[in-house]
Amino acid sequence: MAEAEIGVFGGSGFYSFLEASEDVELETPFGKPSAPFIIGEIGGKRVAFLPRHGREHELPPHRIPYRANVWAMRELGVRRIIGPNASGALKAELELGEFVVCDQFVDRTSGRADTFYDGPETTHVSAADPYCPDLRGLLLQTASELAIPARDGGTVVTIQGPRFSTRAESGWFQQMGWDVINMTAYPEGYLARELELCYANISMVTDHDIGVKGDEPVSHETVVQVFQQNNERLRELLFAVIPKIGQQPDDVCATALCGARI
Questions:
Q1: Across all residues in the chain, what is the average pLDDT?
Q2: CATH number assigned to the domain comprising residue 145
Q3: With bands split at pLDDT 50, 70 and 90, how would you rate the model's confidence at 108?
């Protein structure tokens, strides 16, 4: 089996990443991942890439096999994962194309398989600080060096999908002071924490949620245009940051199971 040190999940519009690569198909105790993994090298680092929606975007957010995807990353040897998501802004000051390197999430999904620990051993893994501080710092530092607009910290609220929010729901999220909204940030990041893997979220603003900057829902044309711009910046950021990523430190991610079992 091919091995990798660093994992990258691809979101909407981001289905290919590595060249001169090999495909690896895996089976897990939780079924097949979204697609075959693509394994390649960037700056001397072995990287595993997986488009979470599948290579043809055939998997809507609520049908993504999150547990299989994260489990398979670990099977490949990955200890550090970057998870970009196309996101809507819940604040007017967030610009289209801006990146938010989140430090918190709010889960508004339902019915998703969101834990590896279904018993018989009871396990409660803390999600107080859900994203890797070391990876977040590297992403922010590198974005600054590249003049890519990226905010340090923010809360992403993850909704079930595939529908978008009603005006009432979006208004509630805005009143709560949350920053961005998408359909895939949870449970992916938390599942990584359950396996003691480092994970950092990059929420890429493709639109403003309904009511943030007016009464009209965002157009598909606008979203697609910003997707393309975001993915070019994302590719630039990933190729610059991956060579800087070192071995997993003995941090909150690597020690997540300490004291978690009853």
A1: 93
A2: 3.40.50.1580
A3: very high
Residue 250 lies in a domain: no
Distance CA 74, CA 195 (A): 8
Q: Does any domain span residue 108?
A: yes
pLDDT at residue 195, as a whole number:
98
**In the chain, how many domains are there?**
1
C-alpha distances in Å from residue 26, one per residue of 9, 13, 32, 68, 172: 16, 23, 7, 9, 41
Domain that holds residue 139: 6-244
At residue 228, the pLDDT reads 80
215 noted as active-site residue? no
**204 domain-assigned:** yes
Q: Which residue has the tokens 């994992």?
A: 7
Q: Residues 227-252: pLDDT tens digits?
A: 788 888 999 999 999 999 999 999 99
Verify cis geometry, omega within 30 degrees of 0, for the bond prior to 162.
yes
Q: Is 134 a catalytic residue?
A: no
Structure tokens at 132: 């890797």
Q: Which is the catalytic residue, given 118, 207, 215, 250?
A: 207
